[in-house]
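Review box. Two proteins, two foldings.
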Amino acid sequence: MSKGQRAQVNARLRQPRPESPRSVEEIRAGFRAMMAQMIVPDGLRATETALGDRPALYVEPGNGPRTGAILYFHGGGYVVGSPETALSLTGNLVARTGFRAYSLDYRLAPEHPFPAAIEDTLSAYRALLDSDEDPSTIAFAGDSAGGGLSVTTCLAARDAGLPMPAAIVAFSPGLDATRTGESMDTKAGIDPFFTRENLGHTGAMYLAGADPHQPMLSPAVLADLTGFPPMLLQAGTNEVLLDDATRMAARARAAGVDVILDITADVPHVFQSFAGVLDEADQALDRAALFLRQHVRLPDTAVASAG
């Protein structure tokens, strides 16, 4: 256990911030600055592309066969973030699996509130399927709000009659817009990143008056997960959103879904971003990569070239 590393990360996240509500532009700039400090693995190629009618960042290994595909949804509370801010996470998954990744630049609130993000992620999945990607070679992955999208996009795909992807990987997913998890209170003050108040500030921008008591906003408490693919849910004990993951895992288990609930002690929200700084981050990403390799089928061409 890397107590010194965890203390360093905790102190970094607890640096003073403005107490009054910040503008959307200020929140976005602050998030970009924070995520620009994260380490992106060497030897990757990242190029701009599009999926559906939205921009995306295509990330691939520098060498070796381009095999399975990860459709990645960045975090940021549906208000901030981009494929670039999530590049440390996307890049680490690509580097550890050898898969390709498409990181989607979905529309953000308050300019585009619910359900714009889900419309974009579903459209991106359709675009992959329409390009002859086999669903058994595609995994959904995401962090925070993007972890939530990895689940709700599956719900939307199932409702639309589309095949399920091979797997879901969600880092510290936000899965309950009702904010009724016990950890919202038990982890208050322990979480160095979130409070009920700042979650409510950005959450209201995304909801724009929508009732949070619906499966597409609170799948951890309301979604029917029948027929879902295998899921890996990773979270840390120091986050107010911890119970979003624990309740989703229980719900998946009750629906007969293969699910792994992977909880790391004394680490913050989306601790995997600190790969290269925090040992637990690298170890969690290794476990996520193993999970993806176990569940994502390699395209026949990749298998042939590997043989």
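Next protein.
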Amino acid sequence: MLSHDEIMNIFRRTGVLWEGHFILTSGLHSGRYLQCARVQQFPEENTILCRELAARFKDQGITTVIGPAIGAIIMAYEVARQLGARSLFTERENGAMTLRRSFTLEPGERVLVVEDVITTGGSVREVVKVVKEHGAIPVAAGVLVDRSGGRADVGLPIQPLFTFAIETYQPDDCPLCRQGIPVVKPGSRQSKP
């Protein structure tokens, strides 16, 4: 098993862990941000992490691995490859998570749902709903990083590779703002004052 330090070294080496002052999707501020998609640029490191995650599900009869587009497409593929399973991804269509591209799930098929990072678990819950709607059996959720500190509930057992409780602040009570550290919204080309 990979140690906490070994995983952190991969995250630092591949640029996953950012330190500074960030506005999270929730609107909260934080001094740390995880951009897990960055590890997927590096096949060797991504394989190491996905192999470690897949090993946790090797005896559960998983036949399909599925994750939400876009962040979990490569991850679902690699975890599926490690398990000898097939790989699917869901996409949003008119705001709802769905299977497209002629993907199908069969009734009774044992499915592992994967995601790179969960905070509230919303995307994973949406994928679980799609799996159930097709009559397949969602067995568990495998995630690279559980940013909720173990608080996310997706209706399935969650197996994180790494649990990371990132301290967050309300925008009107942010010590980083008080220190005058410029704030950045990841994914945005602009810094916020």
